[in-house]
Design a protein that fits this description.
By secondary structure, this protein is of the alpha/beta class. Helices cover 59% and strands 12% of the residues. The protein has eleven helices and seven strands. Strand 1 and strand 2 form a beta hairpin. Helix 1 runs parallel beside helix 9 and helix 4 runs antiparallel to helix 9. It starts with 5 loop residues before the first helix and ends with a helix.
Length: 253
């Protein structure tokens, strides 16, 4: 075990955090209005009595971006965890299906599936993870039946008061970062480097975000408004009709 100086973590984050911001911005720039209209429940927004195009567009866009950013940043944190563990325990990215990290600690081999937060999956997804753990254990024990292999679901934030799940352990937040680094304060030490150039990058993002809100509001009003009001029937038809629906602007061509 080789403790990792926080300076190495900071250097890694500052060198690589730009990929998160770049992916986040690229995802925003690729978006089309119809993408987010197809993926969200129009009945919900009618029930919330949303009256203006801008309000509806903003809610739809924010919901989409929140989901996408969670995934993008979760991937970055997974890479960071593997980097830290490699420096401390000579860990490596696992070739096994559904397993992100393998390493040896105190004579035990750990296989780790890394997730962003504790509430990441439904019962079917958790069952699949357990199956992946079982397969990986069989492969690792093929040449050594006595090998002590421990499966861990690691979550980058949150907490779980009952980590022993029977087939695996679930370590969240402070417990996870300490598990992979042997540093019980690492979860706090990550805060500063993760904010590297955050204001600059977010200012750039906000410019593109505002532009998209304006463009989508104009497009939505043109296609899904009638006499100054949201045409909910047209919107629901686009979202849920059995056949492809022409929007108003297409129909009058």
């Amino acid at each position: 075990m080789k403790p990792i100086p926080i300076s190495q973590v900071t250097n890694y984050v500052e060198k690589n955090i730009g990929r998160f911001h770049k992916s986040r911005l690229a995802n925003l720039q690729r978006l089309k209005l119809e993408q987010i209209l197809k993926r969200k429940n129009p009945y919900l927004f009618k029930a919330k009595n949303i009256l203006t195009s801008e309000h509806l567009v903003t809610i739809l866009l924010d919901a989409h971006l929140s989901s996408q950013e969670e995934t993008i940043f979760g991937n970055f944190l997974e890479e960071l965890a593997i980097f830290i563990n490699e420096k401390v325990f000579d860990g490596k990215k696992s070739p096994a299906e559904g397993i992100d990290l393998e390493f040896v600690k105190n004579g035990k081999r750990y296989i780790v599936s890394i997730k962003s937060g504790p509430n990441w999956g439904n019962s079917s997804q958790i069952k699949k993870m357990v199956q992946n753990f079982s397969k990986a254990k069989k492969v690792l024990r093929a040449n050594n039946r006595d090998l002590d292999v421990i499966a861990v679901n690691g979550c980058c934030y949150g907490r779980d008061q009952s980590p022993d799940k029977g087939d695996y352990f679930k370590y969240c937040g402070q417990e996870f970062w300490e598990f992979i680094s042997d540093n019980n304060n690492l979860y706090l030490e990550l805060i500063v480097p993760l904010g590297h150039k955050a204001k600059l990058k977010n200012d750039e993002f906000q410019k593109e975000y505002s532009k998209l809100i304006n463009n989508f509001t104009f497009e939505f009003s043109k296609k899904y408004c009638k006499d100054g009001y949201i045409d909910w029937e047209a919107l629901v038809r686009f979202n849920s009709s059995k056949t492809k629906q022409l929007n108003r602007s297409e129909a009058v061509r």
